[in-house]
Amino acid sequence: MSDAAPIRPAHIEETIQAIARLQAEHQRKATALQHTVERVTAIIGRTTFVGGLTVVMAVWIGGNLLAAQLHLPVLDAPPFNWLQGGSGVLALYITVFILSTQRRENDLSELREQLNLEPVITNEQKTAKVIQLLEELRRDMPQVSNRQVPRGGRHGPTG
Q1: Does residue 133 belong to any structural domain of this protein?
Q2: What pLDDT, on the 0 to 100 scale, is given for residue 159?
Q3: How far is residue 118 from each of residues 45, 55, 110, measured CA to CA in Å?
Q4: Domain total for the chain?
Q5: Looking only at Cα atoms, what is the longest distance across the chain?
Q6: Helix axis angle, 81-140 relative to 47-69, nearest 10°?
Q7: How far apart are CA 28 and CA 35, in angstroms?
Q8: What is the domain range of residue 76?
Q9: C-alpha pair distances (Å), 50 with each of 39, 46, 54, 81, 106
C-alpha cells in the first residue's frame, strides 16, 4: 500500500487549481486598508475581544464610581456619557468593518460559484451526449426493446 495521494481526474485538478488562483488573485488585489480591516475584523470576532471589552468597561465604570466615593475628580460620572459615546463610535466602526469584510467575501464567493458552474454545465453536456449515443445504439439494435421510465422514476433494475 502506498501513502501517495489519490490521483484526481484532470478536470477536477484543473478546477482546484483555478479556485486556488482565484483566491490568490482576490488576496493580491486587496488594498493595504482592506487587509487591515480584515485583520481587525478577525480580532473583533474573537471571544477574547468581547472579554477584554467587558473588562475595560467594568474598569471604566468601577474607576469612576470609586473616584466619586473617594471624592476625587471623576472623569465620567454616571450615566457615563463618555462611555456611551465611545461605545457608540466603537459599534459604528465594528459594523463598518464587518460589512466591508463580508462584501469582499461575497465577491469571492460569487466568483467561486461562477467557476463551479462551468464543470456542472460541461457534465450536463456530456450526460446529454451519452444519452443521445445510448438512444442511437438502442435504435440500431432491434433486439433491445423500448422501455419507458416514468418521470422522476427510478432507473434501476426494477425501475
Answers
A1: yes
A2: 44
A3: 34, 51, 13
A4: 1
A5: 105
A6: 170
A7: 10
A8: 18-140
A9: 16, 7, 6, 21, 25
Residue 152 domain-assigned?
A: no
Q: Which residues of 69-87 are buried (b: 16+ CB within 10 A; e: fewer)?
A: eeeeeeebeeebeebeeee
Can you tell me the distance from the alpha carbon of 42 to that of 35, in angstroms, rounded to the nearest whole number? Answer: 11
In a domain, 61, yes or no: yes
149 located within any domain: no
The counts of H helices and E strands in the chain are 4, 0
Residues ≥6 apart with Cβ < 8 Å to 46: none
Confidence of residue 139 (pLDDT cuts 50, 70, 90): confident
Lowest-pLDDT range of 3-17, 45-59, 82-96, 121-135: 3-17
pTM greater than 0.90 (yes/no): no
What do you get for the CA distance between the two ends of the chain, in Å?
Answer: 39
Distance, in Å, from the CA atom of 42 to the CA atom of 87, rounded to the nearest integer, reads 19
C-alpha cell, 23: 483566491
